[in-house]
Specification:
Blueprint lengths: L2 H19 L6 H8 L3 H5 L5 H21 L9 H16 L3 H8 L14 H20 L13 H18 L6 H18 L3 H14 L2
Length: 213
């Protein structure tokens, strides 16, 4: 078996185990015995089960961004449009993994922006990407350069991402229409705050959140 195939087999089996049992296997040894591989083979790719969960989010981020970057219109999008497109595409792809994602997202608390350890790799990737889009927006005069806040923008967008993940987890609307609306309103509010017309967007977003409590 090729290495990449074995890595994929470990990830798939772990996700299936978690969905069926709702908790991690008792040990790496027990997990490997069930999978009929040596324990040493597991440690070639992962040091623990949390790293397998982290791999899911990293892969989802990378594949989503790769698909968007290949589209003709991506390079012409504004910073605001890139965030909107990213979120819409990301959550559309996440639908296929909702049961598994929900198990992980139960550990995410919007009041604690660091989130779960399984999201740390995704957090780093997302924040690095956010910095690039923000810098690009500032070069194009789409985003105001504010010396006291420039270094905080990526943190604020990460908090926004956690909020949307938590909102999606709790969303019971048909086709997750409320999540789509939350994406649009929260991104527009964010960019209005760093551009203009903040008051109108803040009122509209606050009204929406109140109606969806």
């Amino acid at each position: 078996m090729e290495k990449q195939d074995l890595k994929g087999k470990i990830i798939a089996h772990y996700q299936e185990y978690l969905l069926l049992n709702g908790e991690n296997p008792a040990s790496v040894y027990a997990f490997c015995k069930e999978l009929e591989i040596d324990e040493a083979q597991f440690y070639e790719y992962f040091s623990d089960f949390d790293q397998i969960a982290a791999q899911f989010w990293s892969h989802l981020f990378e594949s989503n961004l790769a698909r968007l970057s290949e589209t003709e219109e991506w390079s012409d999008f504004s910073s605001r449009e890139k965030f909107l497109s990213f979120y819409f595409s990301f959550f559309e792809n996440l639908k296929s993994h909702r049961s598994y994602a929900n198990l992980i997202l139960k550990q995410v608390n919007i009041a604690k922006p660091k989130g779960a350890s399984e999201l740390e790799a995704f957090k780093k990737q997302f924040k690095n990407w956010s910095k690039e889009i923000i810098a690009e927006g500032q070069m194009k005069d789409e985003i105001a350069g504010r010396s006291k806040f420039n270094d905080l923008y990526d943190d604020l967008f990460w908090i926004q991402c956690l909020f949307l993940l938590d909102f999606w987890r709790k969303d019971r609307s048909p086709g997750f229409e409320s999540t789509d609306e939350a994406i649009e309103k929260s991104v527009n509010l964010s960019f209005d705050l760093i551009e203009k017309n903040a008051l109108d967007s803040a009122f509209d977003f606050g009204k929406f959140i109140f109606q969806n409590r």
